[in-house]
Every structure is written in C-alpha cells, then in structure tokens.
Task: inverse folding
C-alpha cells in the first residue's frame, strides 16, 4: 500500500471504531451523503498535507543551526539581520497567501457541495414522508393524496432503493434534528415549522439515524432505522402499514386485547381498527413488524417488550410512558397480543 | 488586612451563600404506577404545586388525556369552564384531585384507575395555574397552538392591511 493511501485508511479505521458502518457519513448509501463523503475526503487530504507541512517546517526549524545568532562582529550581525528580515517577510507573505487561497478553496468546495446536495431535490417522485420529532421518539407518516392511503408508523422508515424521497420534518415539543448519516446531513425539526430534506438510497440495507440536537433527558436514546429495500418489497411493506391491525385470533391474543383496551395504554397509543385512538405515543398498529422498541433503545422481542411495559422508567428514565400496574397473568396475554400485530 | 481584600472576601462569601439558592429542582424519575389514585388517601397540599416543570407536565397531559375535548383550553364546552371563580365541587387542590380521580356526575369520567397519582396532581396544578393560583414564575405560557406566532401575525396584517 502506498503511503498516500495509508493515512486515510488508518483514519477511516479509527473513525469506524466510533460508529458502526450503519451510522457513518463515511459509508454513504446515496448521492446526498456521497457528496458529503467526497467533501470529507477532500478536507482530510488537504488538511493532512498542511499538518505534515507545518510539522515538517517546525521540525526543520528546531533541527537547523542558527549561524546568525552566534556571536559575531556588529556589522556582520546587522547585515545578517537584514537578510533574515527579507527572507522571513517573503516566507510569511507566501504562507499568508497560501492560507487564504486554501481556505477560499475549501469554502468554495463546501458551498458548492451544499448547493449540489440541495439541487438533488426532485419534486414529483411521489414519495413524501412526514417525520415529527417527539420526546423521545419519531412519529412517521407516509403522505398520500388519498387520506385512506396515509400510513402511520414510528421509529422506522422504509424507503425504496433508487427513488428520491422527501422528508418533511417538524416537531411536537422541542427542537430535534433528523440525521441519518448514511443518507444526508442533519436537518433540524422545529415546532410549528416544516423543514424538508431529500434522501435516496442506492443500495438495499439498514441505516441507523439519531436525533442530533439535544432534546432532553433521553436524547441519547432517540434513534431510528431506515430500511432501504427493492421497490416491490417496499410497496408490500407500505401496503401492510396501511391496513388496520390484525384482529385477535385466539384466546390468548383475545385476552391480551382486553388487557390493552382496559388499561391506560389506550389513552396514548393508537391501534388502527380498534377503540385505541391515542395520538400522543407511537402507533402500535404494526408493532410486531418493527426491528426495535422505544426508539431504537431495545431490539423488539417478547422479553424486551415485557421489560419495557413493566418498567419503562428503568430503561429510559424520564420518558413519557407511565408505568401501568398489571395484575399477575395479564402480561403474557398482552405480550401475545402485541406480538400478533404484524 | 486591606479594605479591598476584605470587600473581595465578603463578596465571594455572599456569592457562595447565594449559590445555595441555585439548588437544582429534583425530578422523581421512578414515579408510582397507574391504578392507585382512586384509593389513595387525599393529600391536603399538592406536591406538584409551584414547580414549573410539574405544571408544564400538567399542561402536556391536559392535551394528551384529551381534557380539552370537553373543557377546551379552559373556556369550557361540553364540560364546564376551568377558568372561573366559583367551582361546583370546590376549587381546592384536594377537591380538584377528587374530581379527576373519581369523576363527577353528568359526564366527568373517573381517571383514577388510568392515570398515575402524580400525573393527576400535575393536571390539578395546571388547572389551578389557569386561574392564577400558582406562582406566575412557575406558570407555563399558553400552548403553541393557541399562541400567535409571526406567521399568524403576518397573515392578519396582510388581511387588515395594517
């Protein structure tokens, strides 16, 4: 491996230790993040060269002999000082010009990358996803001209590969920031304002995103997943999200349904096709199909879901889910019912 | 000791003493579960009273639990207004708590088995703050949704031409 490649390779390796490849600007999945990634490498390259040059000059200055400062006759010292003065003036002038030129080049590169990314908007692609930040989860709505075809979900966004998607972001409470590093830069979600951003994934896969604006106690556990999948698979997924919930089919899920409807769950959660119409907590209509619960805090399985329901405040202290008191024997059917919400 | 040093030391002492006033508001992150409020003995004083965070939580819950569905933003509708001077069942914190927890005739549902006790106290504090019965320093501002914002002001100016 040549030396020119070693440095970027080592820094990429070090950086990849910080975030998995699923949440990294250096592992771009689409054109928007691709431009950011190229810009990042340009910056890294130029700045590394500058660092090496500056260190080199400094080391050379330390190592070199300084004949001018050795004792000598006054005439010689004056002449030498003059020479040094001229040489230093030239060097400082050259360095200043180089600094201004390099900074200007980086500025132009950065602004033009921003413009290129902004120019990737493609109205008319037909897919607009509304993302609303909440303390501490993401409300997600797939908009459609036909209100019956609007799909609601939470903390997980599916997008078709190769199609530009518009994200319309806003917030329900405080300022959040939508950031999926593999797809695009950060976009703040501001209460009672709408901000837009375009994303596009060119290869199937799962990308992790995170709230990038401090938003309170559980800011760190406010993550989301973007699943990029082939068009047909995506359409099938979206069709399922549009359907009301699966009705309870056996005695266990029927009992769980009763537990859900008779407890405080219904005050905040919505399950389409049932009397649960709460609008302030994640929609549970197709909960079982999601990868995670509690906005990426835990994987979605029976054990974690049970733990979450019994004591949500131990997992995300301060979150808005109240602890509900379940009688012995109510949890299992409730988990069965929630697990059936495919 | 020089007089300037004495002044300096006194100043530092005053600052130190004053800094104890900045005691951080404690939040209980492990509050009690739902389903108890119906049966707990009534407290005379509201534990949420006077605490800005608690009252703003009450404001949030007022919307979340759809109190506004009947009482609107305090002006009343299907249910009686909550900004007023005379209360049918009493306006003291304990009476308000009872109204929320156990319900009242003619439509007020009992929330005691659904909402945890601490949240009822937060809602009670919020309702009292609507009537200026909480310190103004702890009273939250009106909801964003009913607050005028630059956009509505601009729209109104455009309409009236002023």
Result:
């Amino acid at each position: 491996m040549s030396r020119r490649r070693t440095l970027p390779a080592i820094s990429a390796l070090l950086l990849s230790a910080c975030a998995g490849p699923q949440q990294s600007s250096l592992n771009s999945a689409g054109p928007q993040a691709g431009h950011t990634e190229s810009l990042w490498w340009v910056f890294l390259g130029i700045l590394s060269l500058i660092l090496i040059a500056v260190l080199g000059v400094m080391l050379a200055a330390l190592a070199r002999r300084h004949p001018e400062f050795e004792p000598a006759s006054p005439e010689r010292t004056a002449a030498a000082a003059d020479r040094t003065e001229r040489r230093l003036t030239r060097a400082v002038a050259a360095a200043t010009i180089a600094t201004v030129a390099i900074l200007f080049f980086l500025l132009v590169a950065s602004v033009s990358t921003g413009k290129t990314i902004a120019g990737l908007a493609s109205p008319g692609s037909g897919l607009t996803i509304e993302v609303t930040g909440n303390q501490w989860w993401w409300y997600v709505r797939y908009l459609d001209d036909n209100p019956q075809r609007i799909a609601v979900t939470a903390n997980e966004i599916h997008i078709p590969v190769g199609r530009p998607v518009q994200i319309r972001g806003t917030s329900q409470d405080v300022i959040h920031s939508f950031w999926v590093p593999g797809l695009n830069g950060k976009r703040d979600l501001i209460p009672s304002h709408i901000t837009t951003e375009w994303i596009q994934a060119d290869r199937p896969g799962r990308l992790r995103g995170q709230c990038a604006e401090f938003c309170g106690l559980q800011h760190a556990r406010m993550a989301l997943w973007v699943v990029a999948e082939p068009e047909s698979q995506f359409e099938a997924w979206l069709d399922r999200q549009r359907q009301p919930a699966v009705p309870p089919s056996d005695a266990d899920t029927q009992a769980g349904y009763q537990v859900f409807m008779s407890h405080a769950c219904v005050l905040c959660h919505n399950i389409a096709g049932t009397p649960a119409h709460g609008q302030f907590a994640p929609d549970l209509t197709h909960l079982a199909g999601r990868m995670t619960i509690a906005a990426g805090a835990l994987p979605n399985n029976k054990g974690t879901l049970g733990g979450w329901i019994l004591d949500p405040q131990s997992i995300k202290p301060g979150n808005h889910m109240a602890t509900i008191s379940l009688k012995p024997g109510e949890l299992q059917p409730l988990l069965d019912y929630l697990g059936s919400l495919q | 000791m020089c007089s300037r040093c004495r002044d300096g030391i006194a100043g530092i002492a005053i600052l130190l003493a004053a800094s104890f006033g900045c005691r951080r508001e404690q939040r209980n992150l492990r509050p009690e579960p739902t389903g108890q409020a119906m049966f707990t003995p009534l407290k005379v004083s509201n534990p949420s009273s006077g605490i800005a965070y608690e009252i703003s939580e009450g404001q949030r819950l007022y919307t979340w639990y759809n109190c506004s569905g009947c009482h609107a933003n305090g002006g009343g509708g299907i249910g009686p207004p909550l900004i007023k001077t005379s209360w049918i069942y009493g306006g003291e914190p304990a009476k308000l708590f009872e109204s929320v927890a156990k319900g009242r005739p003619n439509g007020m549902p009992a929330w005691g088995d659904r909402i945890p006790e601490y949240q009822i106290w937060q809602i009670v504090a919020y309702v009292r703050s609507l009537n200026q019965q909480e310190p103004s320093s702890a009273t939250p501002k009106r909801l964003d949704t009913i607050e005028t914002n630059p956009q509505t002001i601009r729209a109104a100016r455009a309409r009236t031409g002023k």
